[in-house]
Amino acid sequence: MYKKIMVGYDGTKFSDCALKEAIALTKESDAKLLLVTAPEIDVNLQAMAPEANELIEKKARTALERATAKVKKAGLTCESKIIVTNSAQETLVETAKKNKVDLIVLGTHGRTGLVRLLMGSTTARVIGHAPCNVLVVRCP
Questions:
Q1: Is the sign of the CA dihedral 139, 123, 61, 82 positive or negative?
Q2: Is the pLDDT score of 113 beyond 60?
Q3: Which of 3, 65, 91, 109 is the most buried (most CB within 10 A)?
Q4: Architecture in CATH of 4-138
Q5: Where are the domains of the chain?
Q6: What is the pLDDT of residues 70-97, one digit of tens each?
Q7: Is 68:78 a contact under the CB 8 Å cutoff?
């Protein structure tokens, strides 16, 4: 079973679905839970409008606090981290490595085709570089 589970959380309904699954797995396996949010800060935007990036970070912090409250409501404890970055997928992979995570749980928008190709997918990139198993959760 898993000893340490990490959830990539961004405050969307998709990450809420991933969090719900991670909570269930954490209870099942008596693992430790790590919540990570990695808001992406645009360097160019920082130079032109520093308050915009501050707003992005504040929104991420609020989302992480809400997720932590959900974990506590489920009767668990967790460690939570906010890591401001220019690459969410790299940050999630590096955080998993540093924290010796056994499983990364991520939500997905379920986009396909041209939309996915043009927009990219943090989840897909994490899968390709993760040091451990990755569970991708779809919302109903």
A1: positive
A2: no
A3: 91
A4: 3-Layer(aba) Sandwich (3.40)
A5: 4-138
A6: 999 999 999 999 998 988 999 999 999 9
A7: yes
Instruction: Supply φ then ψ for residue 21, to 5 degrees.
Output: -65, -40
Residue 31, SS3 per DSSP? coil
Side chain identity at residue 5, one-letter code:
I
Q: Which residue has the higher pLDDT, 138 or 91?
A: 91
Higher pLDDT, 24 or 86: 24
Cα distances (Å, whole numbers) of residue 54 to 10, 36, 62, 81, 92: 16, 18, 12, 17, 21
**CA–centroid distance for 99 within its chain:** 14
Question: What is the pLDDT, as a whole number, of residue 112?
Answer: 52
